[in-house]
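Researcher: Please translate sequence to structure tokens.
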Amino acid sequence: MMKQLFWTVTLFLIAFPRIALTAGLTVALANETQLSGFVSGEIRGFVSDAQFESQLNGLQSSIIIQPEFLNQPELSTARISLIPFVRLDSRDDRRSHADLREAYWQHIDDQWTVLIGINRVFWGVTESSHLIDIINQTDLVENIDGEEKLGQPMINLATQQDWGNVSLFIMPWFRERTFPSKQGRLRSQPVASQNSLYESTDGQRHLDMALRYSHYIGDWDFGLYYFKGTSREPRFLLNSNGTQLVAQYDLIDQVGIDIQLTNDAWLWKFEGIVRSQNGDRFAAIVSGFEYTLYQVANSATDLGLLMEYSRDGRNKNPSKTPPVVFDDAIFWAARLAVNDTQNSELLAGVVVDRNDGSAILSIEAKRRLDDNWSIGLESRWFLKTKENNSLSPFRKDSFVTFRLARYF
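Model: Translation complete:
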């Protein structure tokens, strides 16, 4: 059944962009609605056989659909955004999933903004770790880098003043993290259960709140926030028969800060948090820089050199706090922007744990083929992973992913 659905959708996508463009033009003329988005195909290959029984081997293919609808009538102070997301995966049923990335109504005037619905909010300045980003839940079956997020139901009230921007977030529904199935790669061992536990008796209905202030002074940009609610990072407990890990979501209080200084070709970055959780209080930081060499060798190409250091002071007892991949690590990377008509880009970086030498090497590249088509390559390599390291379940999961996308 899954294979039939996969190929049906594949055939549909051949015709979808032209159908979507025609429909989008009609809708735009009638209702001032803009239609954009993309459909893409993805093939992921793992360089080693699976570490655990039942895990897939060979190639893993997917189809991704993400249309984007934006209604913003001329001279109106209101807008409506709708961004559904669907992935159909050929090998992992849990990776086949759908989500509303955005579905909100927003009112904007000179000083105030009100948003009601589902939205994505990103906070942070560093590259190697998005330490302070806390509003949205991680869509882990999409990618382990933490950059893909589930849509978060919210009411957001914000004001922009001469002295800065203040945003209040009220979040009435919690989103649980997605996890690969027993057949999937890049999963925990034992596999994570689809059942979850909560510290709050309200469970997913607990009311979470966040307040953020951000501003700039000269070359300095900074933000400060306070979050109170259900942690987006679960800790894990074994079920009664020891065959699965159960995600436990605790209530936390967290203060976060991000700072960025722009000085000619230098970007100096800092993120830090202090969190209280389950009777434990800890701090964590990520700090570093990015230096850009412009027009390398008299060409249009720019080369960015990055270095960041991260330190996490949480208790390593899994019954107290969520696991952390790197608690004392250094990140080196290079970002190449060719600045050609195809927007060719390459980012290569490595994170190395200073305690045991385990590392993740990441390579990401993308290039536009024409006005509608683009290709991308992503690869992650798990190096020198020790048995007792949190990366141990992934040590045979190094992979290369190729993507072909059609934008409309």
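Researcher: Any highlights?
Model: The mean pLDDT is 92.
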